[in-house]
């Protein structure tokens, strides 16, 4: 493994270790899984395979950060809205046609007009 790749792997491990401190299943659980994943791949020598694993680690970092943001948003929403209001908002979101896209929404009339 080349020196820049080695530093990138170490930085990825540190970043994931930092993100795992607040993992919902517990920090110990996360660190055991993290160490196991890195130890499983410690003997890789192919640079393209190492790069694939680094890219996967970056993807996992982004997913964990997104999970933390969603949890933060949900906690804020619980603080500022009553339960009945939250149910009304969720019902409105479920009834909207997000799957149809913007092309079909242009043909439908807007209720605010």
Automatic annotation (TrEMBL):
Superkingdom assignment: Eukaryota
GO cellular component: mitochondrion
Single GO biological process annotation from the record: negative regulation of oxidative phosphorylation
Pfam families for the chain: Complex1_LYR
Annotated ranges, domain Complex 1 LYR protein: 8-58
InterPro entries listed in its UniProt record: Complex1_LYR_dom (IPR008011), Complex1_LYR_ETFRF1_LYRM5 (IPR045296), ETFRF1 (IPR052000)
Family: Belongs to the complex I LYR family.
Full protein name: Complex 1 LYR protein domain-containing protein
